[in-house]
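Fill in residues.
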C-alpha cells in the first residue's frame, strides 16, 4: 500500500483509537473513502483520525458504533472516545458525569474552592493555569477540563433542570483566587446562582466547628428512579458509590450539614460582605 503510515498504539490514547479504527476498517475491506461515505466524512478526515493528527469526536464515534454494530458493547468507539476525552479526570469522575447529566437532584459540598458547576470561566481558568504551571497537568488537559466544565454547567439551564443544593465551606468564600476582580465576579456568580428557582446555596461557617459533618468534597445525585449515587473526592482520587449501605450515611450527614449551615439569606449576606472586603 502506497504511503501507508505505521501506527503505534502505545504512543497515546488518541493513537490507540486510530489504530483500532484502521484495524476495524481494514477487517471489513473498506477504504478510508468508503468508510467516510458511510459516516459522512471525507476519506482524508478518516485518515487524519487513524494517524492521530486529528482527534476523534463523539459524532464520529457514534457513527462508527452504528456502522460496525458496536452500540452499547464493551468495544464501543463512543466508550473509547469518552475514556480518551476524560482521561484528565480523577478515577470515578467520568462515570459520575454520566449520572450527573441525568440527575433530578444534585447535592454538593465543597471545601476551599468554588464547586465546578458554579465557577466562572475566569475562576476556572486561573485554577487550570496554576495546575499547568505546577506541572500537574498539560495545557491540552487543562483545555479539555474547561470544555467538560462548560458542558456540565449547561445542565443548570436545560429545559428540565435539576434541583441543585450546594453547601460550601466558608473557606470557599474567603480564599481569594485570581485576584480581586476574578474573585468579585465569582462571588457575584454565587449570588446569582442562589437567586435561581431550582437552587439552594448555603455556607458552612467556620464557627460550626465540629458540627461540620463532612470533611471531604462530596457529590450526591438523586436519579429519576429516586436512587442515590455518591461521589467523594480526595486530592488524588475519586470514588463513585451506588451501594445503599454506604450512600445513605453520606446523605444523612449532608442533611445534618444543611441543618447547621447558614440559611440561604444569611449565606448571601456573608458573600456580599466578602465582596466588599469585610473580614
Amino acid at each position: 500500500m502506497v504511503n501507508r503510515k505505521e501506527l503505534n498504539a502505545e504512543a497515546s490514547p488518541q493513537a490507540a483509537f486510530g489504530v483500532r479504527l484502521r484495524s476495524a476498517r481494514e477487517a471489513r475491506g473498506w477504504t478510508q473513502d468508503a468508510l467516510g461515505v458511510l459516516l459522512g466524512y471525507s476519506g482524508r478526515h478518516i485518515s487524519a483520525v487513524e494517524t492521530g493528527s486529528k482527534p476523534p469526536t463523539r459524532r464520529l464515534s457514534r457513527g462508527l458504533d452504528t456502522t460496525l454494530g458496536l452500540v452499547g458493547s464493551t468495544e464501543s468507539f463512543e466508550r473509547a472516545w469518552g475514556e480518551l476525552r476524560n482521561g484528565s479526570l480523577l478515577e470515578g469522575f467520568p462515570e459520575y458525569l454520566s449520572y450527573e447529566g441525568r440527575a433530578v437532584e444534585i447535592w454538593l459540598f465543597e471545601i476551599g474552592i468554588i464547586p465546578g458547576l458554579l465557577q466562572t470561566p475566569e475562576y476556572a481558568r486561573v485554577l487550570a493555569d496554576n495546575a499547568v504551571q505546577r506541572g500537574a497537568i498539560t495545557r491540552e488537559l487543562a483545555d479539555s477540563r474547561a470544555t467538560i466544565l462548560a458542558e456540565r454547567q449547561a445542565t443548570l439551564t436545560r429545559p428540565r433542570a435539576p434541583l441543585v443544593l450546594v453547601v460550601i465551606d466558608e473557606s470557599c468564600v474567603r480564599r481569594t483566587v485570581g485576584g480581586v476582580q476574578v474573585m468579585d465576579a465569582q462571588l457575584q456568580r454565587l449570588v446569582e446562582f442562589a437567586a435561581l428557582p431550582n437552587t439552594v446555596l448555603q455556607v458552612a461557617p467556620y464557627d460550626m466547628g465540629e458540627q461540620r459533618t463532612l470533611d471531604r468534597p462530596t457529590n450526591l445525585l438523586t436519579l429519576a428512579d429516586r436512587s442515590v449515587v455518591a461521589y467523594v473526592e480526595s486530592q488524588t482520587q475519586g470514588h463513585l458509590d451506588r451501594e445503599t449501605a454506604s450512600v445513605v450515611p453520606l446523605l444523612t450527614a449532608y442533611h445534618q450539614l444543611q441543618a447547621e449551615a447558614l440559611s440561604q439569606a444569611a449565606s448571601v449576606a456573608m458573600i456580599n460582605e466578602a465582596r466588599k472586603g469585610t473580614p
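The CA atoms of residues 61 and 79 lie 8 Å apart.
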